[in-house]
Design goal:
Number of strands: 24
Distance between the termini: 16 Å
Number of domains: 2
Strand content: 25-35%
Structural class: alpha/beta
Shape: globular
């Protein structure tokens, strides 16, 4: 795959379904009574890992492209898997399913690829252990593989040291199996898809300020869920529309949940021409069409409470910053170090290779934008968000931009390059 500089970008596109909502729809449908139907499901490798795990625990799940039907068996309907559950590359699957497994009467184990085996799981092991769960890192290194389950749970209040929807959701899901109220407080509010969707399934769940709480033992009932487009996938086309010449792009049906949509505010802060059209609520989530045109961007500071709302978009925000006039400072984002790759290191390395003046810091990066970018070989480190972000950089770079492995995009966006080609005018 080679990307070269474009003359213009024009068109109307649809993007794949929201990954976070797709994962949760499968999980919550599996532990609900009756049928859950998902339309717009993200048919990517991560979400297929979630389906595989629940099939291995006796749940009948049928899938045809973006249409998924789950025959749920209720809170206590899962059966012991006959082998280790395979979570693939999915941190969401790993951490959320651990909360569900902690409440089961059987003992199970899970593992994933090399990346998952390096990602920190002590952040869920600690609160689940406080709930009296049997959970351990099999290699005793705070990472997968994990062994979980076989003990009754007790409710707790947990003050999470990190703003992480995966940690929060893990604890709330374990709270479904505890007798009483389980609550989690965060330093900053993280994405709230779990709270919104579980409420729709019938859970007694509340959010007040920085704290979410859930009452154990509800009867969850299957739902019909229309999955909107994923803002994290839209982010690449938002960036492309802002930095490429003669661009005019309409992205249809995108989830604009404010706990996820920080990139829209940053684009506006950088002087981007971006507007939300046809705003509406779909299956409990705010949705809009996003219109973007070519803009003269300037640097800004990305820090503080907005970071959890755009943590997955920081690689492509860095690409925007490289094309903007002036300095952009990204800080308070040390969480980037424990993603699919160390994204502080991988973004810095690749932007430097393309000619950008960028410096890594302990919790982010400093980017002096405005220098021309030059095509190069992108070292993806098998990280889908690095591959897609630098594909966008390649649209404005002199020469060719190629990849050591572009196939990793299938983790979250299997048709990324097809969508990109729809709007390119070379």
């Amino acid at each position: 795959m080679a990307i070269t500089k474009v003359k213009s970008l024009k068109g109307e596109i649809n993007i794949p379904g929201d990954k976070s909502i797709s994962h949760r729809g499968v999980m919550f449908g599996s532990i609900s009574d009756g049928i859950t139907e998902l339309t717009g499901f993200l048919d990517g490798a991560d979400c297929r890992s979630t389906i595989g795990c629940f099939r291995a625990m006796g749940i009948d799940i049928s899938q045809k492209n973006d249409h998924v039907i789950i025959h749920g068996k209720g809170l206590h309907g899962l059966t012991a898997p006959t082998q280790m559950l395979d979570v693939g590359n999915s941190g969401t699957t790993t951490r959320l399913i651990s909360g569900i497994l902690a409440g089961q009467s059987f003992i199970s184990s899970l593992n994933g690829d090399d990346s998952i085996q390096k990602r920190p799981m002590k952040r869920i092991i600690t609160p689940l252990t406080m709930m009296s769960a049997n959970i351990r890192s099999i290699r005793d290194n705070g990472c997968a593989p994990l062994e979980i389950g076989g003990a009754p749970l007790k409710p707790i209040h947990y003050d999470s040291p990190v703003a992480s929807a995966q940690v929060k959701s893990c604890i709330l899901l374990a709270g479904l199996y505890a007798d009483g109220i389980t609550s989690v407080s965060e330093p900053v509010v993280s994405r709230n898809h779990t709270e919104l969707m579980l409420s729709g399934f019938g859970a007694d769940i509340k959010s007040e300020g920085l704290t979410a709480s859930i009452v154990g033992g509800p009867k969850l009932v299957g739902q019909k869920i229309e999955v909107p487009g994923d803002i994290s996938s839209a982010a690449y086309f938002i960036a492309a529309g802002l930095i490429c010449p003669n661009a005019d792009i309409l992205i249809k049906n995108v989830n604009t949940n404010p706990t996820r949509a920080g990139i829209i505010k940053i684009a506006q802060d950088m002087g981007g021409n971006i507007e939300l059209l046809n705003e509406r609520i779909v299956s409990g989530e705010p949705v809009a069409d996003i219109h973007i045109t070519t803009s003269e961007l300037h640097g800004c500071t990305v820090s503080g409470d907005i970071i959890p709302t755009l943590i997955d978009e920081i690689p492509v925000i860095a690409v925007m910053a490289a094309c903007a006039k002036g300095q952009t400072v990204i800080k308070d984002a040390a969480e980037l170090k424990v993603k699919e790759s160390d994204r502080i290191a991988t973004v810095t390395e690749n932007l430097k290779n393309m000619g950008c003046d960028i410096e890594a810091t302990d919790d982010g990066m400093i980017i002096n934008g405005g220098n021309p970018l030059n095509g190069n070989i992108v070292n993806t480190y098998l990280d889908h968000r690095i591959a897609m972000s630098f594909a966008i950089a390649g649209l404005v770079a002199d020469g060719e931009t190629t990849f050591d492995n572009e196939a990793c995009c299938s983790i979250s966006y299997p048709t990324f390059f097809e969508t990109l080609n729809q709007i390119i005018n070379k």
